[in-house]
Every structure is written in C-alpha cells, then in structure tokens.
Amino acid sequence: MAGSTSDAPDDAPRPTERALSSIAEQIEAIDELIDRARSTLRVFDVDLSEGGWHAADRVERLTAFLRRGRGARIELIVHDTRWLEQSCPRLVAMLRSYGHAMTVYRTGHEARNATDPLVIADDRHYLHRFHVDGPRATLAFDAPLAARPLVARFADIWATGVPGLSGTVLGL
Length: 172
Fold this sequence. Notes:
Blueprint: E1 16-20, H1 23-36, E2 40-45, H2 56-68, E3 73-78, H3 82-87, H4 89-97, E4 102-106, E5 118-121, E6 125-129, E7 137-141, H5 144-159, E8 162-165
Parallel strand pairs: 2-3, 3-4
Antiparallel strand pairs: 1-7, 2-5, 4-8, 5-6, 6-7
C-alpha cells in the first residue's frame, strides 16, 4: 500500500557502543560527546583531574556547546573542587561567563562513595568509566535506553549536591 507506514525506511540512528581502555581514548570520547550534545551535558567525576578538562580545546568545545542552543546547560558534580579551582582557570573563567547555563556542585555525604565517572549528553550519548582507579569505560551514542540507568544514577548523585563553585566572586 502506497500510504503504509510499514514500508517507511527506519532512518532513526542506530545505537553504537564501544569499549575504551585508556584515559587518552576517554579524552577523545568526551570531546565527541560534547560535539554531539545539543541541550544538556551532565558530568560526574571525583575531581576532573583526568579527562582533559583543563585543556583550552575542551573549554572551547564547551563554550561552543553553550552557544549552539538557547537552553543549553552544563551540570558538573565532583567530590572535590580543589583541583578544578587550582588547575582549570579556563573552566573557572567559563563558569564566570556562563554561570546562567552552567552549575558546579560538590557531592553530598550520601554520594561520596560513588567512584564511576559519567559524562552524559542529551540523555542519549554517554561515557561511563567503571571505576576511577582504572581506565576501562564504555562509550555509547544514540542509546537512550542504555543511558536511562546512568541518567538516573546521575540524578541520584546530583540530588545530594551542594554548591561547589560559583561564577561570581563576593568579597568585602
């Protein structure tokens, strides 16, 4: 039948997943995730000291992401903000410029045992590092069903968050 939808081609993107075995692969994968992101980028890490977060190119990618869409948001949550404050001046400066679209939290007591960093883009693309002490991770694109438990995990961690870094500097 000419008007039948059953003959329509399935042009939805197919989920893809691949195993990563090094930090260098993860750095490249995070850049790919940022480039694909359109509305939300959610990051959980111990302190962002691994993964290329201090690099100028990473901040340029994050800035381009925020400029792509009016409602684009970045949500970062870490156990410890010291490395971020001391070693990521570009990211801290970006927070000052884009504080309306970017939030940095510190995990609350309830989430201090979380040790599996996550980067989730648009609730459909993700990098899940299995444990902070090892380099193994999974990278997936166009996989909203597979991302669902990780999105829920991030939400649980985020719910414990307390303000970590602010885009404003207050003083007397």
